Amino acid sequence: MPKFPELSPGAQSVSAAVYSSIQSGSRPPRPPVPLHIGDTWMEPASGCRMEDLKVADHPGMHRYTPVPGLPELRQRIAEFHATRTGVATAAEQVLVVPGATAGLATAVASTIAPGEEVLLSAPYWPLIAGSVRAYNGRPIDVPAMTTAKTAEEIVNLFERHRTEHTAAVYWNTPHNPTGRLMPKAWLEALTEWAGSHQLWVYADEVYEDYVYDGEHCYTRSLAPDITISVHSFSKAYGMAGNRLGYLVAPEPVIAAMLRVMTNVNYSACTASQLAALNALNGPGPAWAAAARDQYAELGRWAADRLGVAAPAGSTFLFIDVADCLDERGLGGFLGDLYQAGVMVAPGPSFGPFPTHIRVCFTCAEPAEVRRGITILAEAMAERRTG
């Protein structure tokens, strides 16, 4: 155990930056297109914005809510989730959290002990590895989403990395960063395997509303007793700045996570919860459907321009640029792109992918995204032919 002036090993093992630094010189004359950020250019639907909330309509909106969330929001989420998954869901199985990031960290803190391992389906959303380390667990990369082609293959990959110290597994679908969609057959095989080894499953489904090819299968619909499912108003309804999400899990797990959250975050933002309730009860689903159509068109255009497969879901493309790199490696290429006017996320942030980049095609106005994708495509073509 650390003593003054030493710090927690978990805190020291976590980076303060999501993405690695860029090897670049001076600032470009025009701000780069931020294709590295997983966000949307769209504002939430009218009636679901902070400016739409008034104390006259919501007395006490600047006070605390109950720690698990507003009772009416928890009940509405339970109904909404049950409809989507086909699994009967009580409000007591829902925990409203200050962002899916905090929710996943709370899940990790509640289900693993120091030294235990969490198998991460790689490439993965970067902050999950940091959450595991922060709570003194060990994240284990399982390079599945760029290699597996069948249910049998992906189960074998996870089994190859399982040890007596494995306590949980993590996957996300629709997938950040590859844009793939995990087929139902994969999830059936994986949940059967996880259940047979008494492992918790962290099912990150924050891009559930953004499927362009195929159909999303909810992990909880297959294995409700071992699944902690993670959802996000940020991604669903363009509310990233509101920092609001929710978890659905068996009641004993919710009770444990509630104890952790009480001592870390207490309750989620009251106004954010009111905005989310307005979205669920009003224009939120229609807003998401309209956003999905626009995202799908942009994603297909970007993939075609970059010469890669179109995304089946989420808002990302994950591209191997090994043939674009010189002796400076990925950092040099990122620096060149920055000078040319575009920023992308480096592959190593998502696991053992030293020659990959991630591109978000919803992070800025469509015209800006197209400009950034064009810069990237031209830079890649120049290096491949040069």
Written account of the structure:
The protein has 386 residues and is α/β, with parallel strands linked by helices. It folds into two domains: 9-43 and 285-385, Aspartate Aminotransferase, domain 1, CATH 3.90.1150.10; 58-282, 3-Layer(aba) Sandwich (Aspartate Aminotransferase, domain 2), CATH 3.40.640. The strands form three sheets. A seven-stranded mixed β-sheet has the order 2-8-7-6-5-3-4, with helices on both faces. The protein has helices at 9-12, 71-85, 100-111, 127-134, 151-161, 184-196, 233-237, 251-264, 270-281, 284-306, 329-340, 366-385; strands at 33-34, 94-97, 117-122, 138-143, 166-172, 200-204, 227-232, 245-248, 316-320, 342-343, 345-346, 356-360. The model has no long low-confidence stretch (mean pLDDT 94). It has twelve helices and twelve strands. The protein is globular, with a radius of gyration of 21 Å.
Helix content: 25-40%
Return Rg in Å: 21 Å
Distance between the termini: 54 Å
Any low-confidence stretches, pLDDT <50, length ≥5? none
How would you write the strand order of the largest sheet?
Answer: 2-8-7-6-5-3-4
- Strand content is 5-15%
Q: Which descriptors apply to this entry?
A:
alpha/beta; 12 strands; Aspartate Aminotransferase, domain 2; globular; 7-stranded mixed β-sheet; single chain
Brief sketch in words of this structure:
The chain is α/β, with parallel strands linked by helices.
